[in-house]
Design brief:
Radius of gyration: 18 Å
CATH topology: C8orf32 fold
Number of helices: 8
Oligomer: single chain
Largest sheet: 5 strands, antiparallel
Shape: globular
Number of strands: 5
Strand content: 5-15%
Helix content: 25-40%
Order of helices and strands: HHHHHEEEEHEHH
Strand order of the largest sheet: 4-3-2-1-5
Length: about 260
Amino acid sequence: MISQFFLILITFLFSTKTFASVSASRQADESFFQARMRNSVQSTSQLYLQGSSAWGMAQSFEKLDFSQVADVGSLEKLNHLFIYIRDSKFISKLPLPLTERRLSWLFPDDGCYIRAEMVSLFTKQQNLPETYKFFGFGDLAVKSANHPDGVVRWWYHVVPIYRVGNQPYVIDPSIDPKAPMTAEAWKAAMEVERPAEKFSICQPRTVGPEESCTHSRGQSYEHTIRTQINFLDYEWLRLQNLGRNPQVELGDNPPWLH
């Protein structure tokens, strides 16, 4: 009884604490397991949360229950929400040449967790339908024109998720900047090399795979903005390295308009 009470207490204390986010990046010669071990922060507090974390609660795609996900009512409303999330310049007061920026959709290598958290924060601010977080795990790989190799690899990937009726959709312009993707199409897009292993649906403020899937408070607004700004720098450099014009593509002429 005492040990059970201790476990509940520890879970409560640390599920309300902000944890360091975990990189989603996986190297070409790494397996899912190797990338997870390399990127894991695994503090003592998180060891208590493994069973209730996004990773700990992951299961096969076929066993997922999407009923907890917000139903936006129609594809038209979902598309409006998608455009708002994709195109809004949530980051402002930046140095020239661009003082306002969208989320880092054109740097797919990493930062999915902070993009999803930004969406969670700003949709709540605007009284829009609340987004749950959809995590995928495995030797994930997706084709991308925004990477020098043409392929981006992750050991996990997380995105905002909604429903229209019984059909779940994700918002992930890092993979498809044109429209929302069905959960099934999103899964298939990440299986360029191997099948995805497991998935979990977590409450809106779960940021990383080692945080509580049900009780996390997420990150502070200031920390979230600061982390996203770091990825904006990587995004700018990536476009330069690809021989593209970041001022144009990150300004008012993004590639999805063509």
